[in-house]
Amino acid sequence: MQGIGSSCSSVACLGMLASRFKEDKERNSAIGIAFSGLALGAIIGPTFGGFMYEFVGRSSTFLILSAAILSVAVLQIIVMSPEIDPKKLGTKNSFIALIIDPYILVATGALIIPGSGIALLQSTLPIWMMDTMRATTWQLGAIFLPISILYFIFSNLYGVLGRYFPKWLLTLVGLIIIGVSILCIPFCNNIYYMLPPLGGFGLSLAVIDCAMMSELAHLVDIRFSSEYGSVFAIGDIAFCLAYGVGQLIGGVLLNVIGFQWMICSSAILSILYAPLMVMLRNPPTKENKQVY
């Protein structure tokens, strides 16, 4: 039930932002701020949950979160005054047409690859650290903080970066940085040596997520009609697919090919996918004209 609610709210939120902010620079900033909420939750959530469990009680965490979510829902009804417009019932864009569009597929792939990379790390890195570094419990819990912190910082900075660099170039560079960062991890024999590559992963992941979600809205604007629900649903499916498959196969790959080969394969895939971002440099419009 929580997963259903989360997917509905994330798709609707991004769709509202894309509809509200039509100008590309404003849209970049708005989507960057929205994605910083993901990182903020990842940073605060574990600490908040652990504190409440230890000092208040197990059920207190969920009761407070439920109250916060209901409060946000009430505020949305009051502030946004939602109404159903019969003219906008249903989407004007065919879901099938969107999902087979080559440019949307390329953008979606750029979301899946780094997402699956972080899912593989989350499911296997703590095990590898226990085997090779004799990592303590607090180290296992804190190791992903560099990713969350850098993700939060650079998702907020994306609005600035998007003003000076095109989305396809930021994503291309980000995929390469992710590949290089992942390649460095198996060679780290100390937890502190892992902080820079994990930080590089986090900042690149933030830039890629913001850039490609903004690019999906842009592609719909120039190649279809400006209805964003279906295309952001595709982006959300990409996130879920990446994390779900990555978590499922991480343990299997760890046992079959080992941590180093698994991580190196993910890194090489990210680097090899990066040149495809050139396709998004000048995607043709629905009138078959080039956008410069």
Automatic annotation (TrEMBL):
Family matches, as Pfam families: MFS_1 (PF07690)
Domain of life: Eukaryota
Positions of transmembrane segments: 30-53, 59-79, 100-121, 141-161, 168-192, 198-219, 231-253, 259-280
Subcellular location: Membrane
InterPro entries in alphabetical order: MFS (IPR011701), MFS_dom (IPR020846), MFS_trans_sf (IPR036259), MFS_Vesicular_Transporter (IPR050930)
Example GO biological process: aminergic neurotransmitter loading into synaptic vesicle
UniProt-recorded name of the protein: Major facilitator superfamily (MFS) profile domain-containing protein
GO MF annotation list: serotonin:sodium:chloride symporter activity
Gene3D superfamilies the record matches: MFS general substrate transporter like domains
Membrane topology: Multi-pass membrane protein
Assigned keywords, A-Z: Membrane, Transmembrane, Transmembrane helix, Transport
Any GO CC annotation of this UniProt entry: terminal bouton
Domain Major facilitator superfamily (MFS) profile: 103-292
